[in-house]
Amino acid sequence: MANRHQDGSAGDANYGIIGTDYAKYRQPDPHIAEFIRAALGNARSILNVGAGAGSYEPFDRMVTAVEPSASMRAQRPAHLPVAIDAVAEKLPFADGSFDASMATFTVHQWSDLAAGLAEMRRVTRGPVLILTGDPSELNRFWLVDYAPEVIAVEARRYPQMATIGEGLDGNAEVIPVPITLNCTDGFGEAYYGRPERLLEAGARLANSAWSFVDASIGDRFVADLSRDLEDGTWDAKYGQLRSLPEFEGSLKLVVGRGRS
């Protein structure tokens, strides 16, 4: 059984602390949502594991949400189904209960990735979708120049694409998901062309990696980036990103196609 924090959060991040303003910064992005919708195909019943505040749950399908954090369950909008308090590693559903299942920005926090993926595969008749970051591509983001400790934390936490594929019976496609300039889902790379936003404490708090580094790193980051934005150093090196329509970062959609 996964370890649980006081608010019920499972895995390594305590969303009772970092998740209080999560929904303010982490709004589903329409561009990313289209990748998920396409991969879901004509599935009608969908399980969302580690559902959080409900990002990317399709409104026109029958969705069952699982979320262990009470703080995150409380932030789900009223029009979404109430989330079940459970963890990926022990899903309370019968075999083959759903047409498809999905997990977005969550697998890096599971205490047992293989068990969680096996459970998703067990309860799903069709595709299993995993939206996550490729740890080998995290250093494409300029944050590596200012807070390499944060990038290193993410690289340790994110599972390799091959590992996820193996957990999905070895029958998975890895689809790169470009990030748009005005991405509304505020994970780190969403601010590739809007560096000022990452100076906001709330924006950093909505990215769990910052909770795994000393507060002094955040202070140093704010001081260094503020200075470089003021004197033009950041723009001299990265200013072209401010108008780049899409950024090819680490974001990937891994789609397990199901049993043949």
List the helices and strands and how they pair.
Elements (H helix, E strand, L loop, with lengths): L14 H4 L3 H4 L4 H11 L4 E5 L12 E5 L3 H5 L25 E5 L8 H11 L4 E6 L9 H4 L1 H10 L3 H7 L4 E5 L2 E2 L20 H5 L9 H17 L1 H6 L7 E2 L3 E6 L4
Parallel strand pairs: 1-2, 1-3, 3-4
Antiparallel strand pairs: 4-8, 5-8, 6-7
Mean pLDDT equals 91
Distance between the termini: 30 Å
Shape: elongated
Strand order of the largest sheet: 2-1-3-4-8-5
Helix content, binned percent: 25-40%
Give the structural class. alpha/beta
CATH superfamily: Vaccinia Virus protein VP39
Beta-strand content bin: 5-15%
CATH architecture: 3-Layer(aba) Sandwich
Biggest sheet architecture: 6 strands, mixed
Domain Methyltransferase type: 47-125
Keywords: Methyltransferase, Transferase
Protein name: Class I SAM-dependent methyltransferase
GO molecular function: S-adenosylmethionine-dependent methyltransferase activity
Short description:
This protein is α/β, with parallel strands linked by helices. It has helices spanning about 15-20, 20-25, 30-40, 70-75, 115-125, 145, 150-155, 160-165, 200-205, 215-230, 235-240; strands spanning about 45-50, 60-65, 100-105, 130-135, 170-175, 180, 245, 250-255. It has 11 helices and 8 strands.
What does this structure look like?
By secondary structure, this protein is of the alpha/beta class. It has a single domain (15-256), classed as Vaccinia Virus protein VP39 (Rossmann fold, 3-Layer(aba) Sandwich), CATH 3.40.50.150. The protein is 32% helix and 14% strand. The protein contains eleven helices and eight strands. A six-stranded mixed beta sheet has the order 2-1-3-4-8-5, with helices on both faces. The protein is elongated and about 60 Å long. Mean pLDDT is 91; it is low at 4-10 and 12-19. Keywords: Methyltransferase, Transferase. This is Class I SAM-dependent methyltransferase. Pfam families: Methyltransf_11. GO terms for molecular function: S-adenosylmethionine-dependent methyltransferase activity.
